[in-house]
């Protein structure tokens, strides 16, 4: 009884003391960094007297913050570095050359024979910054940190997984080695042949279904036919859309330290994965060996240690999500911008590039600093940031920084064609990231968006007033809806 009472009496000290110590630890780590700092005080620290917090050095602000300049923050016991400049983004994302793509070999895999370093450098590492993705993307190339020192073969590493994806899925997308490996352009054309949206319509879910169909045909060599054993496709796509919000919600919650199954967001992700996983399992079980995804599966089973079924489920889950979410999101934003333009013919490449600049689907990426890093804080000074800080590179802010673009908040496709003076820094364009962990499927994503958007813009006059600023934010950003009218151009001309 006395021990129970003693535990109860110590509980308030634990509830107050643990957050205080964790926050002080982060604050002390950032104290020597000569940058503006913001301290987010979680409950119950936010209830402490302001004077006491100032005595502890926990002022909510230190220095004047500018969203287009480097700054630091303590957020739910995590030290963060906000990176909104191109120079600092390059220093974080590509401080060293990415690992070379391994060449061919006579063995079952062309992976490097020597074991990789157990720790990737900053820029190639993701680490704890992506722990909240574990229940969704697992050990896929998107989140895989690197090979474990205990791994018996180099094939378990991020380098090897990336190489296998490039070799079997992403390299030479418009080449056709067999009827089961249609060129990407053919997969897009086949899917567009049956794309006949009603008017008016919300194009976001229609784009999601279309890009899923393109990806399925490209990966498996056959059109998707809804099996009775799977949840309806619309249910699956809605589950993916919701998961992307929940993963970010969980990472921003004070409960992020708890196992996912103990948090409301984590439990909901678990329920939604019961909808998403069967689709990945269906691909694994039915993919023809000669298809792109089939050859990838066979190569992974031959070159990686142990039972790789769990990893393959993670990778296919990630592939299906990424092919739908990013392409459908970019198409949706491009259509929102199109509806606001005059009915004149559209330069598809310039329109898509300006869409990726002003409304990137991935607004930020996060990388843990695994070693101290000196970053340009101003033209005349640098700031040394210690290891252990999580660097959040704001792609959206780089793209809208007035130092890099004139009239940065305006949608002006002509900046990429007839008005090059509106682009002050051509290198400040990072919609797919930068460095060795930039989007591995960026070339395919670009082609899908360009050809599908070209089809819609060429066939229809798009009307309505969808607001590209009305969005839902997860670890990617999508417009809430794309409610438009579609009038065939042939009817308008007549």
UniProtKB/TrEMBL annotation:
<dbReference type="Pfam" id="PF00067">
    <property type="entry name" value="p450"/>
</dbReference>
<keyword id="KW-0408">Iron</keyword>
<feature type="region of interest" description="Disordered">
    <location>
        <begin position="93"/>
        <end position="124"/>
    </location>
</feature>
<feature type="compositionally biased region" description="Low complexity">
    <location>
        <begin position="106"/>
        <end position="117"/>
    </location>
</feature>
<keyword id="KW-0503">Monooxygenase</keyword>
<keyword id="KW-0560">Oxidoreductase</keyword>
<dbReference type="InterPro" id="IPR036396">
    <property type="entry name" value="Cyt_P450_sf"/>
</dbReference>
<comment type="similarity">
    <text>Belongs to the cytochrome P450 family.</text>
</comment>
<keyword id="KW-0479">Metal-binding</keyword>
<dbReference type="InterPro" id="IPR002401">
    <property type="entry name" value="Cyt_P450_E_grp-I"/>
</dbReference>
<protein>
    <recommendedName>
        <fullName>Cytochrome P450</fullName>
    </recommendedName>
</protein>
<dbReference type="InterPro" id="IPR001128">
    <property type="entry name" value="Cyt_P450"/>
</dbReference>
<dbReference type="InterPro" id="IPR050121">
    <property type="entry name" value="Cytochrome_P450_monoxygenase"/>
</dbReference>
<dbReference type="InterPro" id="IPR017972">
    <property type="entry name" value="Cyt_P450_CS"/>
</dbReference>
<keyword id="KW-0349">Heme</keyword>
<feature type="compositionally biased region" description="Pro residues">
    <location>
        <begin position="96"/>
        <end position="105"/>
    </location>
</feature>
């Amino acid at each position: 009884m006395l021990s129970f009472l003693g535990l109860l009496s110590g509980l308030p000290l634990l509830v107050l003391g643990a957050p205080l110590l964790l926050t002080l630890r982060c604050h002390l780590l950032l104290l020597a960094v000569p940058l503006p700092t913001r301290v987010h005080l979680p409950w119950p620290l936010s209830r402490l007297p302001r004077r006491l917090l100032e005595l502890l050095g926990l002022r909510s602000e230190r220095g004047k913050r500018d969203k287009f300049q480097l700054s630091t923050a303590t957020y739910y016991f995590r030290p963060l570095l906000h990176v909104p400049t191109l120079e600092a983004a390059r220093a974080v994302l590509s401080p060293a050359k990415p690992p070379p793509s391994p060449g061919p070999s006579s063995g079952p895999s062309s992976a490097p024979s020597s074991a990789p370093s157990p720790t990737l450098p900053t820029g190639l590492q993701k680490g704890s910054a992506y722990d909240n993705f574990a229940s969704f993307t697992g050990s896929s190339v998107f989140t895989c940190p690197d090979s474990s020192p205990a791994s018996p073969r180099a094939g378990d590493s991020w380098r090897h997984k990336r190489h296998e994806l490039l070799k079997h899925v992403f390299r030479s997308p418009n080449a056709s080695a067999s009827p089961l490996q249609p060129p990407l352009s053919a997969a897009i054309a086949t899917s567009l042949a049956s794309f006949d949206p009603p008017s008016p319509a919300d194009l976001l879910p229609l784009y999601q279904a279309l890009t899923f169909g393109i990806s399925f045909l490209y990966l498996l060599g056959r059109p998707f036919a809804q099996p009775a054993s799977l949840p309806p496709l619309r249910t699956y796509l809605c589950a993916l859309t919701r998961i992307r919000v929940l993963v970010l919600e969980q990472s921003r919650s004070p409960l992020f330290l708890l196992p996912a199954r103990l948090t409301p967001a984590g439990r909901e992700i678990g329920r939604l994965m019961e909808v998403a996983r069967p689709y990945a399992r269906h691909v694994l079980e039915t993919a023809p060996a000669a298809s792109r995804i089939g050859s990838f599966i066979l190569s992974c089973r031959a070159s990686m240690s142990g039972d790789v079924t769990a990893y393959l489920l993670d990778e296919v889950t990630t592939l299906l999500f990424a092919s739908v979410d990013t392409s459908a999101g970019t198409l949706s934003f491009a259509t929102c911008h199109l509806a606001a333009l005059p009915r004149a013919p559209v330069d598809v490449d310039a329109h898509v590039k300006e869409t990726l600049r002003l409304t990137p689907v991935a607004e930020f990426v996060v990388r843990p600093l695994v070693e101290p890093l000196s970053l340009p804080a101003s033209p005349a000074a640098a700031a040394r940031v210690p290891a252990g800080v999580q660097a959040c590179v704001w792609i959206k802010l780089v793209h809208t920084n007035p130092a890099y673009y004139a009239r940065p908040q305006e949608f002006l496709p002509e900046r990429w064609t007839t008005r090059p003076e509106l682009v002050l820094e051509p290198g400040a364009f990072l919609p797919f990231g930068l460095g060795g962990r930039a989007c591995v499927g960026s070339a395919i994503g670009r082609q899908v968006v360009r050809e599908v958007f070209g089809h819609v813009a060429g066939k229809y006059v798009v009307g309505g007033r969808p607001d590209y600023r009305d969005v839902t934010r997860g670890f990617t950003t999508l417009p809430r809806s794309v409610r438009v009218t579609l009038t065939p151009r042939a009817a308008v001309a007549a």
